[in-house]
Amino acid sequence: MKALEKMPGHTRLYRRGAVYYHRAAVPVDIRDTYGKREETFSLGTKDHSDAVRLIRVHAIEVDRRFEDHRRQLQRQAQREQSPPLTDLTRDQIARAKSVYLHHLLDEDEEVRLNGFEEFEKEPEGLSAQEDRQFAARPTFEEHEELIGNMEQVDRRNLARGKLDKFHRDEAEDLLSWEGIELRLDPASPSWPRLVRAVQEASVEAAQAIAQRNRGERVTSVKVV
Questions:
Q1: Could you tell me how far CA 197 lies from the centroid of its own chain?
Q2: Tens of pLDDT, residues 83-141
């Protein structure tokens, strides 16, 4: 694998082979909690002037991610100082579900805005395998298959009342999101209802994404 080469035009602009990249170290104050040490990704272009234009946009976006993470840490610290709830209301669970569904549909929309990979011929400068690895974008068929497989598993778990670990973890994380920010007692009887609501949101999202895959217009849901 070729190393990234620093390029003129911007402090975060790099190149590997013929393809330009964004590369930035995660700030020291959030590095331990951010999950990775760098924000490095392909700009999807081999043209230097185009790369300089794109890097300015992506640098701002990455800086916003860093700042969002700092705010999340602050909210988490504040939330942990408050006493945990013993139960959630129906409205709180309904809101958590709608926020999660909105998130899943927005996430899918971002995938589509970034475009799906197509490898009909080998790209210049990099092999098809290298280009695919660094672009980190799925093909339409891969995306469709993944969503379909996940929907089958989620429906099976819903039908059997199985509260799987993935959605339990998602529910725990969801409570910390901006706009929810609730601390729930680990022994609360609300956990099964919350996890099941997250499972339902996953199935509803899969149905909406399947409509998008057929070329139908599906907007993100309104958060209640």
A1: 19
A2: 899 999 999 999 999 999 999 999 999 989 988 887 655 445 555 444 444 456 789 99
Phi, psi of 39 (to 5 degrees): -110, 95
Rounded to 5 degrees, φ, ψ at 14 are -135, 170
Pairing outcome for strands 5-6 and 38-42:
unpaired
Q: How far apart are CA 47 and CA 9, in angstroms?
A: 12
Residue type present at position 22 = H
Q: Are 39 and 22 in contact (CB under 8 A)?
A: yes
In which band, very low, low, confident or very high, does the pLDDT at 181 lie, cut at 50, 70 and 90? confident
Q: Which residue has the tokens 């509803």?
A: 204
Q: How far is the C-alpha of 60 from the C-alpha of 73, rounded, in Å?
A: 20
Q: Burial letters for 180-191: b for 16+ Cβ neighbours within 10 Å, e otherwise?
A: eebebeeeeebb
Q: What is the pTM of this model?
A: 0.64
Q: Do 119 and 139 contact (CB within 8 A), yes or no?
A: yes
3-state secondary structure 107-161: HHHHHHHHCCCCCCCCCCCCCHHHHHHHHCCCCHHHHHHHHHHHHHHHHHHHHHC
